[in-house]
């Protein structure tokens, strides 16, 4: 008797490449492209892509986000400043400064400082206070401190209490304080704002 062959059952839907599916869903959720255009671009049925975007079905990849909620959470993660380490292993804060007393040719140690951020209403809000170490160096916005999360795309003001410093060394200065206003556009970078100071003048710049 002739052998009977059973017809294999195939899914009516084609298995789509997981990587392409992830790319298509991410583009739709980011608003870069519509579901219809993404369907044409990646050659994925519109109904299938719509289900993936709405989280009705998983993308099919064990690694990475698989639903709408997870993709949105992944896209909205707040950027954290990169950790920059020194030779000794200590982590450098996102914002650092170095104050040099050019009249004495020495670091300006123990100088009080205050960092403020300009809010949406145009008012300055104090974020953190600190002081320079004996070497004239200081840092702000440690990712593990109470100000974590306040280092973002904004305008900041760094105030140096120069009058107190000059009084402590028996000198009278012309400027009671120095305020340096600067803009942060990429909070993942490290910013160094030094101050070169004398009783009758000062200068600043963005260092490294």
Describe, in plain words, how this protein is organized in 3D.
With 208 residues, this protein is of the alpha+beta class. It has two domains: 58 residues; 121 residues, Immunoglobulin-like, CATH 2.60.40.180. Helices cover 21% and strands 27% of the residues. It contains five helices and twelve strands. The strands form three sheets. Strands 3, 4, 7, 10, 11 and 12 form a six-stranded mixed β-sheet that branches. The protein has a four-stranded antiparallel β-sheet with strand order 6-5-8-9. A two-stranded antiparallel ribbon has the order 1-2. Helix 1 packs antiparallel against helix 2. It is rod-shaped and about 80 Å long. About 17% of the residues have low confidence. This is hydroxyisourate hydrolase. InterPro entries: Homeodomain-like_sf (IPR009057), HTH_Psq (IPR007889), Hydroxyisourate_hydrolase (IPR014306), Transthyretin/HIU_hydrolase (IPR000895), Transthyretin/HIU_hydrolase_d (IPR023416), Transthyretin/HIU_hydrolase_sf (IPR036817), Transthyretin_CS (IPR023419). Belongs to the transthyretin family. 5-hydroxyisourate hydrolase subfamily. Catalyzes the hydrolysis of 5-hydroxyisourate (HIU) to 2-oxo-4-hydroxy-4-carboxy-5-ureidoimidazoline (OHCU). It catalyses: 5-hydroxyisourate + H2O = 5-hydroxy-2-oxo-4-ureido-2,5-dihydro-1H-imidazole-5-carboxylate + H(+).
